[in-house]
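task queued by scheduler; priority normal; single chain, no ligands, no partner chains; default sampling; output format set to structure tokens
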Amino acid sequence: TPGASLDGSAMVAYNADSPTLYGVLYHYPATVGQGGTMRKIYDWDSGTFLGTIPEVNHTYNVVGNANEHGLIIGESTFGGVPVLAWNQTGAIIDYGSLIYITLQRAKTVREAIHVMVDLMDTYGYASGGESLSLSDRSGQVWMMEMIGRGSEYGRKGAVWVAVKIPDGMVASHANQARITTFPRDDPKNCLYADDVVDVAVHYGLYPATADPDDFSFSDVYHPVDFIGARQGEARVWSVFSKIADPSGTFAAKHLQYALGMDTSHRMPLYIKPYQKLSVSDVTHLMASHYEDTEMDSSIDVGSGLFESPYRPRPLVWTYENNKYHNERSIATPKTGWSFVGQIRPSFPAKLSALLWFAVDDSSTAPRVPVYASSTKIAEPYAGKGSQDGVVTPLLDFSLDKAFWVQNMVSNFCYYRYKDIYPIVRRRIDGIQRNFELKVTAIDAQALEVYNRTGSREAIELVTRFSEEVALILHEEWLKFYGELFVQFRDFYTISKKRNEPVCGCQAKEPGLSEDIKKRIVEETGEHYRVIDKKGTVPVLHGESDRHSPLVDRSER
């Protein structure tokens, strides 16, 4: 919320995680006169054609998950009870279509809620349970949670609750429903479906004799279990723990809940940060791997030779009839794209929404600033999604697309994580600082143009800016990949060395950590031990220092 940010912005952050999600920035230009034509609806997750709905006469310009009037919508899927999740016969509106259609039709959060409810109730809701983050030019931030009414209730659509987050607070959600009980008589701060309790009673999920005021949306429609806490709520804990207090009191208090050991003591829906947050602060929160916490995966045997926090999927696996799991951090390799969206309430509507957009892993991908009123997207980031009825080019590699170049850097980083990741983060932070300065300058220019000539010329200015910085970043990141590759290829660290006559460089062997050495010896015993026989004549070998003069072993 604005009161929790350094510059008075409202911010919404979102990682779209799927191994089959192609990372591009969707663009839907504003339209006029399309009313009455039929719009095809395709499921965002599967690409399945769901049906058609009438288009409206006037739609708004949408860039990614923001529109020209300063409305931003993000989400996370929680699924929910099987009788309701993905279980509504004949439903046409999936959650992805719901977001992008709403962005084209609504200016404010309240309008968005009305549009979404009308779409779901009219055409049916085809997805599982969803948590939505919504913010608009006023600076209001809301959390909305919904789940379908199923096929046996006699009414299409979804039940839902929407809660306004108080100014000065920070809220978070991550694939686990979070809204519990809610006020019934405070429409300024809470809205809900009129049958949100009735549906639960109908399906036997809530006793008919129970007090409706005690009804908890999350506990009924998506009860917290071990996986919900450990792989969902733990990510909320990660965010809250870093901003709640510097002493670690919040982290300690809610650790057992985040670990899934005690799911009865839930975390609050929102908290007040001990200090106000910048855009850069939020980008770092979205890059978390649980570093230096009980869930840090970079310190156990699964981290490999280079202390990676990542593991191959699936998240839950079986060994000798017992189930185990990998940690699910905020940053993850399978992210298709992500954003940190800013709403600046003091700006004109057309200039108020700014997306800091990245493709691939949110911890290893740089963010480019893009204004939501932009009328064109730079080619490296431009493209359509499965919700548009297209098969995305996920198997067509191209250096012209940011998705592939940023994946190249990320995947190269994974192979020698402890050596490369710090370098990647330093480069990303430098790019972020530089872009923030550029945004400050272009904001001033755009406001001057807006006040002098109106919105059209101002939009043209910020569109050109958004394109230019995206092209610059794409070129820089491709060059950066080359820099990393020549430095870290073949398990060496190769750096410049003055007056070296062969390559002007030296190759350092990274060696193994003492912990890895210990594990190898304990597991293999004498298998790798070098046998030195007393009295033998010393000889040189092909791998000796004498025949590898460029190799520096001093840092082993």
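post-processing summary
- The chain has 13 helices and 23 strands.
- Residues 65 and 100 are 7 Å apart (CA to CA).
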